[in-house]
Amino acid sequence: MATILTVDDSPSIRQMIKVVLEPAGHNVIEAGDGAQGLAKVQAGKPDLVITDLNMPVMNGLELIRALRKLPNAVGLPIVFLTTESNDAVKQEAKSAGATGWITKPFKPEQLLTVVGKLVRA
Amino acid sequence: MSAIDPTEVFRQEASELFEVLEGALLDLGQRPDDRELVDSAFRALHTIKGSGAMFGFDKVASFTHEFETAFDRVRKGEIEPTQELISVALAAKDYIRALIEDPQSTDDVIGEAILDDLKRFVFSDQPAAPVAAIIEAPSPAPAERKQAGWHLYLEFESHILRNGSNPLDLLEDLCKLGPCFVVPVTDGIPFLDEMEPEDCYLKWDVKLHAACDKGAIDDVFMFVQDEMKLTLSPLEQVEAPAPAPLFQLLDEEPAADVETPAPVVETPAPVEAIAAPAEQPAAKTEPKSETKPETKPETKREAAPARREEARQDRGIATVRVQAERLDELMDRVGELVIAQARLTQLAASGSDLSIKVIAEEIERLASSLRDTTMGARMVPIGSLFGRFRRLVHDLSRDLSKPVDFVTSGEDTELDKTMIECLADPLVHLIRNAIDHGIEDTAARAVAGKTAQGRIELAAVHSGAQVLVTVKDNGGGLNTARIRAKAEEQGLITAGAVLTDHEIHQFLFHPGFSTAQTVSALSGRGVGMDVVKRTIENMRGSIDLSTRPGEGTTVTLRLPLTLAIIEGLLIRVGEGRYIIPLSAVEECVELTAEDERSRGRNFLNMRGNLVPFLRLREIMSSSGTPDQHQKTIIISTGETRVGLVADQIIGNHQTVIKSLSKLHSDVTIFSGATILGDGTAALILDVAQLVALAQSKVEKQHISEAA
């Protein structure tokens, strides 16, 4: 069982991720913005972080950059959610240190596929 | 696990977002330039779109997407949020709301009309508005011609592990497509001392025996395609179908297969075509050498912020509480080390082995910096002590009805922590004295034309290797006549004895001496100043009084910075060796024949000033003949200078102070002892005592001359 942190200002997205991942045997913890997410990772390293990019207080890109500077988050897979079609955003997030992405809207199977790619039992 | 219906959560959230959106749009009508409003409106739209699509509100998603696309131009500042535009946007918002809350009541026609309006405002400056469709999840590349298999060569960028991708997982995923032969290519692995533990140096050569299409392989490397070199080529001939998982096969793979990756490596052309059609080349402009990670800008950029972060965290815990005992222990060890080092230095100096001398010097340097660091760790700002007295002064001034202004300065002057502890009691005495005896009562102050409020200053200041702590009051000053009368009364001096004021004041430090006419609860019981003096001298410090009648008294404490180790000047007198604390030494001169002739007067002419000197040979009662060229060491305590005549000046010595036993407590001219490099002991001269001794001789001389 993996611990997965979902960082999103939208409770419904967090709910959705929880509803998909918990039956698959994962433990899902939530954070409402980047700053909260950063604090959660500092408190205990999850196995995967799924973060939105567009958030108040601290956005996803800032979160990714901050996480990559944390010694205890070395090698932590970080997936970002994006609705953006353009590669520039993906590129920016990737160069900030993101591991992968999920394009919104996504179906539960897509989410599970991506999580399966990055989280090993 | 969760009983909450996610759709319901979405509806609730959407209704909140609509409020945000509506508020932002309305405010935007008032303040079109407010970027914050545009951003928050955009964020609300964005969330509605993203979440809507996921909970099956496809119409909401597609409509909002177009709304968002249009609004993006406002966000980018390409068009102004005009009143008309805001009206349409509000209509669009209402439409989305209806789509979510009551989809039956809406009609697509209305939506299209709104969108048309919106586009008219937003894209009026553009010929045709191609509205992008909602983005699908990365779709597989068009199906390729079926192959018997693929030959892959994988080379990842070195930072790939740090960014959370695991090449082994990717290989495992690749193996799910069909049987694989995986051979790691190890030629890029650097030597151990050049290796960055978090970098990926391995490359892989993979033969995939599966007739899957290229899209499936691309899917495996979807997230890392920009951070790797993937060379794909169709396998020429179908080899014997390999049925097994990868690592087992590694051992069985015939060597012949390993020999042929060459054509694959040399065909990088298809990489771009496969990897990402719209890829930005910016991320990897510079050509990299895989074998030298430290020359890679990438690596450095990753590592440097990480180190900074660590540094910042270190600052976060910048202070550590350590038990005082441990510091004392550490200081003891350093002391032992310094002694051992002195022995080593002496041994090295007596031999001719150059390499040992080099090491001895190295160790001397290390020991002395270790000593400084350890002493530094024991330093505490004196302000922590000063804080305690504020309350004391307040209480005293209330009890004695003497209003007092208490001023402190130099709180950040640092002293050894043991010194600070030892200083507390003496300072309490001095401050009590200052208020009780020093400051006059209000009536007397009024008569003297002073302000009703007395003033006590407590100050600390560095002075060379010493710290001066002064307690100064603006009271009446010492009453020399009364001190003298009291001394006569106690039989300390005979009536009519000729004494300087300074000598008379010294009686204040005499045990059981008090001039206070009434014994108050606070002072006047005759304990105090003698204890203060003893305590300060035990710290190898000195105490000095100065007073001006009617203007006040200043008590000055001179304290060494530390108690444990000092820099000393090693001298020889006869057969014995002695240490003079270097902080007290001003200069060393030769005792000239002319000075020698003035025997009996014992004064040196130091650039016009007469300085009294003491012959240490006489004080130590040394036997044997004195050296031909006697040396004089000028020492000083504050303003008073005294010369000490010795046979030889040996040199600097790091002196670890060992206290003398109780048996020697009446030996005043020594403050301690130390162990020299050859294991013998040397006594440490008490500078304050020697100066006092010289002065009393001088004054006696004056008196006898005057008589």
Keywords:
heterodimer, A: 121 residues, alpha/beta, Rossmann fold, 5-stranded parallel sheet, 5 helices, globular, B: 707 residues, alpha+beta, 5-stranded mixed sheet
> What shape does the CA trace of chain B take?
elongated
- At CATH level 2, the architecture of chain A is 3-Layer(aba) Sandwich
| Helical percentage of chain B | 40-55%
Q: Which strands sit side by side, in order, in the main sheet of chain A?
A: 2-1-3-4-5
Instruction: Choose one word for the global shape of chain A.
Output: globular
CATH domain topology of chain A: Rossmann fold
**Ends apart, CA distance between termini of chain A:** 7 Å
Based on secondary structure, the structural category of chain A is alpha/beta
Largest interface: A-B, 48 and 53 residues
Rg of chain B is 45 Å
What about the largest sheet of chain B? Answer: 5 strands, mixed
Radius of gyration of chain A: 13 Å
Mean pLDDT of chain A, nearest integer?
A: 84
Instruction: Trace the largest sheet of chain B across and list its strands.
Output: 6-8-9-11-10
Query: Low-confidence segments of chain B, ≥5 residues, pLDDT <50?
Result: 127-146, 238-315, 518-526
Report the top-level CATH class of chain A: Alpha Beta
- What is the arithmetic mean of pLDDT of chain B? 75
Fraction of helical residues of chain A: 40-55%
Number of strands of chain B: 21
Q: Supply the helix-strand structural class of chain B.
A: alpha+beta
Q: Tell how many strands the DSSP assignment of chain A holds.
A: 5
Written description of the protein model:
- The complex is a heterodimer of chains A (121) and B (707).
- Chain A is α/β, with parallel strands linked by helices.
- Chain A has five helices and five strands.
- Chain A has a single domain (3-115), classed as Response regulator (Rossmann fold, 3-Layer(aba) Sandwich).
- Chain A has a five-stranded parallel sheet with strand order 2-1-3-4-5, sandwiched between helices.
- The longest helix of chain A has 11 residues, at 11-21.
- Chain A starts with a strand and ends with a helix.
- In chain B, 44% of the residues lie in helices and 20% in strands.
- Chain B is built from 23 helices and 21 strands.
- In chain B, a hairpin with a 2-residue loop joins strand 12 (565-573) and strand 13 (576-581).
- The longest helix of chain B is centred in the middle third of the chain and has 27 residues, at 324-350.
- The relative contact order of chain B is 0.05.
